[in-house]
Write a structure and sequence with these properties.
The chain is an alpha+beta fold. It contains 2 helices and 8 strands.
């Protein structure tokens, strides 16, 4: 195992443990997949889920490696969620409810609080239209 993989695995285990104990955790976001909502270098806080994920929430899913902080586009009856990074062209795919561990609750950018926003109603309806098109309805 490489050092980067070992670090990601240890960080993922710690994140899972904290969320399972009902505690939030904070880390430095890396990458541009959630731009402009979450930017590379932002300090983000993820808290345990206090209710099932909703369309527009940004959730932390333990999908291997350290995990994934992406937006919920759709929620199936079985609780699985369709995730997508705001800046990504495609969706991540369906993620089982059991691996969705937490919700983004705070963003700190350059030492100041930044707003955590859910999808606006218009954007949510566009997402629904996209999903219907993908599903062939």
């Amino acid at each position: 195992m490489t050092d980067a993989v070992e670090v990601a695995s240890a960080a993922d285990a710690l994140a899972r443990d904290l969320l399972a104990r009902g505690l939030p955790f904070r880390y430095v976001a890396r990458g541009r997949s959630m731009w402009p909502a979450v930017r590379d270098g932002d300090h983000v806080t993820v808290a345990p889920l206090d209710h099932p994920p909703r369309v527009g929430d940004v959730v932390f899913a333990a999908t291997g490696g350290f995990g994934l902080l992406h937006r919920v586009l759709w929620v199936r009856r079985d609780g699985a969620v369709l995730l997508k990074g705001d800046f990504k062209a495609g969706v991540d795919g369906w993620v089982p409810a059991a691996v969705v561990r937490g919700r983004l609750t705070a963003i700190e950018r350059a030492g100041r609080a930044a707003a955590v926003r859910r999808l606006a109603p218009v954007a949510a309806s566009l997402a629904v239209a996209f999903i219907r098109q993908v599903r062939g309805r």
